[in-house]
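Now for one record.
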Amino acid sequence: MRVLVRMQVVTREDFAVHTGATYGPSDWIVIDQFMIDRFAALCGDDQYIHVDPIRAADGPFGGTVAHGFLTMSLLSTMARQVVPRPAGARMGVNYGFDRVRFVAPVPAGSRVRGMFTLDTCDASMPDQLRLTWDVTVEVEGGAKPALVARWLTRQYLGGAHGAS
């Protein structure tokens, strides 16, 4: 596995050349109870396994755990640290996911970080790159990843608004 760390700006041709390359790991991000509580308030998921440390201590995970969607929401932060931007990019957008699995819980107070492997690069449109990433988010000291996903993104190049 080739690991390329913190490449910032590359040509669109570099993406095709680096198909199969892994970028990362990102910096560690602490997911503490305060973050979990704020996410619960924002999304409306206040299940006890996330927000009630006393009750969760007797639950299946031995304490509170982060929402899977909280972990997934951190992908943009992690990717921004390690995934290169194409030269001339006006904006990048999430296009979706072909697959997401929440493999292992993320206990409150854990540190997570991401690795991004470029699976495909479709450069067939002159003003756009369509990229598919295999993503893994690991929990520090964990036996299994917290999350594995196939993430679809688009980078819009040139033009006043990023697309012609």
